[in-house]
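The freezer alarm interrupted the setup, so I double-checked each line after restarting. Inputs confirmed:
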Amino acid sequence: MTQGSDNPLEAYVRAALALQGYTFEDAEIAEITAQFARLEAIARTVFDWPLPFASEPAPVFRP
Amino acid sequence: MAAAVCIGTGAGVSPLIGSAADIVRQIGTGARSAASVLAETKALIHTRNSDLNCFTAMTFERAEREAAAIDALQARGVPLPPLAGVPYAVKNLFDVEGMVTLAGAKINAGNPPAAADATIVARMSRAGAVLVGALNMEELAYGFLTENHHYGTTRNPHDHTRGAGGSSGGSAAAVGAGMLPITLGSDTSGSIRVPASLCGVFGLKPTYGRLPRTGTYPFVNSFDHVGPFANSVLGLGLAYDALQGPDPADPACAQRPVEPAGVSLVLPRGIRIGILGGWFHEWADPAARRAVQLAASALGATEWALLKSAEVARAAAYIITGAEGGALHRPRLIEQYEDFGPSSRARLVAGGLIPASWVIQAQRVRQQAHGEALNLFQHFDLLMAAAAPAVAPRVGQETLLINGRSIPTKAGLGVLTQPISCIGLPVCTVPVWPGEGESPAERALPVGVQLIGAPWCEGLCLAAARTLEQAGIAEVRPPLNYAAAKFTR
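Predicted 3D structure, all chains:
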């Protein structure tokens, strides 16, 4: 696995993969980065959505 | 191919197996035996499955035993259970005692066989249904096609050059092809509703938590639902009622008592039905819009409804799905990456890298979208929208073009279902035949319409579906390449 990238998304993907115990070749990292970029693009819709500060996440634990 | 032993068409092969209600009635009166229904089913499967690739395994020995047990009850004059002798099959992510649960994945092929049936498979057995096999699906339920790298593509019964949709593609195609009156599937983001739409069958995704998932292979715990497909609304209701009931083994199961819905499928007078606009109209092509229009006219629905958070709810579902699916499969992705299909493995790994803050934000969005939907149900009793943005795409087609906008097929087919499952609402999908399209082949294909209820209002969804069925707007049609006779509902 080659280290270092000028692309912040790829840099994040490489770091997160290492943190989670994955080892991949560069071609596979490029494919995973492309998939992560799609997720990031969709996630922007979620980031930008206005929410009340006190709004809670959906899952509720019921002991 | 063997000629099937069939009834009533004079063509040698029935266009569709009878409805569940017909089969139960015929066996109850002694007009037919469960063994003869099973023989017809096996012949239909033998004749048609090779074209479509619906099944990944048969369970005929078990089916013979279950059918014989029903015939023995009938011979003794004992009251028969509600699905007596009705043949069915299950998506291969349901545990079936003695079989390996594949979930469409090679990584599971070496697992030990299931020690017991999934809860809802056991409930089907208790209701007298006869299990004939396990059905193909998208690998690990991740995607809206059933173009499975390991177990092959399931094709559309109405056009074999097109896909069945997914991830429960085998379940929908087996009913659409007339092989079975009922199948079971699962729906995380649209995996019952999308293939039901593409294959022209009825499908029910109940409220999140209504039916137990115990003994099913998980994908996204936050969204996983299970439910039936059927060739009639009565059959869908019979199956749904048989599947209900609490199960403490599933922490998401709502532990509600059985609330029978299939017995009274009459739409109350004065019901308020809203047609979902905005996102749901923008992402529906002319055929899908026409299908909604036909159903709305038949139900007397004229008012538009707006779920403003539809787009962001879909995005939230996307993020949560990626994160949970990626986390679930991380150990196997590390050890067996090459054994995952090429279309899913990079997506799964990428999902597992999603930061926690994105997931938390997505869950907050989900909660807010749920609140908005509940407010909408203050004004409407039922909402409706297309179940897929277009008719079935061709096998291998990589993009859909919807009203001038391109979207990847594998994810885009769920663009109209994902916002609804994100907030767990019950939906009955009904098959409508809009007759729209650029070619005669497209004009012969169905589009499903989602009938969306408030939480726990499955009965209303089913009643609206029955109204459309009785009006002749929603129906399961025999594929054109089989005899063109109808069956009695």
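Quick read of the result. The CA atoms of residues 10 and 33 of chain A lie 6 Å apart.
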